[in-house]
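Write out structure tokens for 3-beta hydroxysteroid dehydrogenase/isomerase domain-containing protein.
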Amino acid sequence: MAPPPQTLIDSPSLFVFVVIITVLSVYLIRLNKLMSGTPDEVRKLSPKRWTKDLLLETYKALETKPITTSSYAQRIPPKLDRRYIVTGGSGKRLVGGYIVLQLLERGQPPESIRIVDFRAPNRDDMAHGPARTVDFVQTDISSAESTNNAFTKPWDPKRSHLPLTVFHTAAVIVPSDRYKLEHGFCEAVNVGGTQHVVDAARRVGADVFVSTTSASISIRPVRLWMAPWRLWSGWPPNFWQVLDDKDFSLPLRKHQEFYANYPASKAAAERIVCDSHSKTFRTGCIRPANGVYGNPTDNTVGGPLSMGDCPTWTSRIVQSFVHGANVALAHLDFEAVLASPKSVSSSQAGRPFVITDPNPPIMYDDLYFLLETLAITPFRTIALQPVAPLLVSYIIEWYTLLLIKWPIFRRLLPPLAGDVKHLKPAIFSICTHLVASNSVASRPVSQGGLGFSGVFTTLEGMTQEIIEWNRVHQAVAGRDHVIYQTSVALADEIQRATATTTTA
């Protein structure tokens, strides 16, 4: 007689295994649902979705009458008789290029402006007119010598006597690395580079210094892994956050309390700038909201467009974005305040201001719908369940740290290349709900603000970027994608170049 079939009860080890797998599966399914959702309090901040009619109407209006520096010239603060050094002004970092264009629009002579950057300007809107004649000095700000050489280069004799403003926008964006083992590059450029720029600026007599930092400084790491019973009682801690400057009044947080090395480096750089404030060197910082866009080289609009097929798990995520032109205007607003020596004791001086577009935050679904509806090149999203890339991200991070910590493995295993190397757990802290406000910066100067007002709404700014994308691609046979380099890809290139220089 055949023995009866074995059951789970007859095999305790098999029973325990099945229970563990079941509990783990239920846990991951619940976590995946939360990561794909939008809390009610966040949804109330972004209640309206973009419609096809709204997108087409906006496209038609901006195609006929685009928003340009000349169309908002009256919004740009009046011309000052000064010289200007703009680090990062080539345009790859968006903000620096818009600062140069706005300075020229308000009447600053090209010979009174100097661009200091790793790369020469290559934006279409800087390839003609006065912008083409602005002086450029190729510079590696991680090198004190290179920075000093750029700042001490002689000026046009007719301008050399003028007071000097420095707009420091140069930085590298590496949003995925979070361990100190990987911190060297951000530390060298964003922290060391800022110190070199501050030192060089003071050495040549600059009296106004405005730096671009990042609203990501205030982001706390999202805590996705928590006790199962807590997972059913609410959203993961820090799953939605307000981007503000309250942290600035507190001691600088520990490295592990930032979501990644990038915001930790920007926070340290911000303290360098603000702590340097004095009567003869008046300083301040602008914190752009999480995603800066406004040129096909950006990561927000240009990045997905260049991909065509865009894998994503963020469709229901709500975030604030900011156009590069709006951020540039905030820098000029800040300069207008700091230009007066009396501002040394003002409430604006020696502190940061958060800047975002003048509208409620949007959902990533809005952005993707805009790309699908308006771009003439093919675009589609490939929906991913967020838990899957989250689990893979730990493997990628482990592999990366393995190669860094034990050099012997670098001889045996290939390094990761392309976008996949940036899929690490830190990314999931900026793929959460992040909301910013202009409420402080928009206050009148008499009330401690900058008097800031943006000229692009997110709808207008993203639509106009699509118009420019379409204009370029209409001239390309077969509608092949023009290859643009995003700021994250540029950071990879700079890291390779500096590593080669160091080892040469």
